[in-house]
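Hi all, long-time lurker, first post. I run a small reading group and we've been trying to get comfortable going from sequence to structure in the token notation. Rather than ask abstract questions, I figured I'd post a concrete chain and ask someone more experienced to write out its structure so we can walk through it together at our next meeting. Sequence below, copied exactly:
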Amino acid sequence: MEIAVIQDKILPMAEVASAYLDRGVFFGDGVYEVLRSYSGKIFALDEHLERFSVSLAKIEIHGVDIKQIRSRLLEAFEQAGIANAKIYFHVTRGSALRSHIAPKELKPNFFLTITELDDFTDQKANGIAVCTFPDWRWHRCDIKSLNLLPNVLARLDAAKKDCEEAIFVNEAGLITEGAGSAFFAVTDNILQTAPLTTNILPSITRKYSIKAARQIGMEVVEKCLTVEQAACANELFIAVTTKDIVGVVKFNDKIIGSGEVGKYTRLMMVKFATYVQ
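-- Answer (accepted) --
Happy to help. Here is the structure in token form:
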């Protein structure tokens, strides 16, 4: 008899709930999105759904109705009644006995949560510390996949060093992005960040940060930074859905600028706020 053990309970495989057989658990075989609301209004929903659709196509998960996901999301958001919410959802290829090759006609699984967004007021006012970590991720970070173990390990290391974020550095010594954020440097009035390639997530917040920079008169250069260049920048900041723009005041134990959130970073924060009002 084929059996499974869940905690201390032994049961026949036929009685195992499908959630335990999800290919997202076995292989990280799925993609996800995170978005947020401001004062009861979801920000950049269409752009997040478009990116999600692209990720699904790139890993060949078919049969997912994006319009249906949008409807489910909006209904859940209305029912939750949380003004400033974090909305997470993912789709996996489906549930089946563990095998690298999925059965044909497998039905994708959908999961969504809506939770209260944490208060990052102090971080935004005072800035954060970050540290570097080797970029051990796979080579298709343009796909927002569920394979996040390198990100978890990077964040664990950062937490041990009392840092809020880990910044990935590849084998060439170049900074790619944060474990959960886009990474930017400011020198004079020039904003620099890594270009969008297959090793960079096409972040929605990155897009709006670049838009903000240009609208306040900054020059934008999409070119990878070395660790040394980042450490010598006038200002650093990260951009992430749940926090928007957050200044970095310490990089690998080196104080950045005056040790306070920089002038251009603050100007961009103000401009970014106009997009969500």
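A couple of things your group might point at:
The chain has a mean pLDDT of 97.
The two ends are 60 Å apart (CA to CA).
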